[in-house]
Amino acid sequence: HPFLDTVGEWLRSPWGEAEIPCQECHMPRVSGQVAGARYAAYSSHGFLRQRDPQALRRALTLEVALRSPELERGSELRASATLLNTGAGHAVPTGDPSHRLELRFELVDAQGNRARGTSIESHWMGREVQSTPPFTQLSDTRLQAASSRVFDYRQKLSTASKAGRFTLVVSVHWWAVAPERAKKHELDEQQVRVQVLEQRIPVPVF
User: How does pLDDT run across 178-193, given as a tens digit for each residue?
Assistant: First the structure.
């Protein structure tokens, strides 16, 4: 199995079947001065890259739903997030198997502090491949082209919490390498992580 297979992912996707080329997304048409035509549109050679937040936002769509519009202290908040690959003609993340995609849930109070009794909950997507030939693929939990995945969230809010306006923050992050690998190599999180999407859902607590 190829160690890097972005082109193969595209060939097997609805984009590949429809013969929509990679350049359609990675070399979008822009206007500017070119030989013979001052404002003619041409294909940008800036190339959208997987680390580019703009490219990542074009690739993914995030939908969040709460089971209840309000929450009582001591009760359980239940929500679901649907992450869709709506704009990439390949898996996300693609390329180097070290890349990871994280979907993160966090409930915060009016001051932005994590709600009592709750914790950050992360769901990880990626591909595990042996680093030596024949590069056997061990697992693949990435978001394939034109696919979606639902993630459920359940956290119990402490009875010691004060009533008020809380916020469920659901965010999506692209990682060049997994956090544990970044820590091992003494890489700062900001060097390897790109925030792609975020939704903030108000949760009244009484």
Answer: 999 999 999 999 899 9
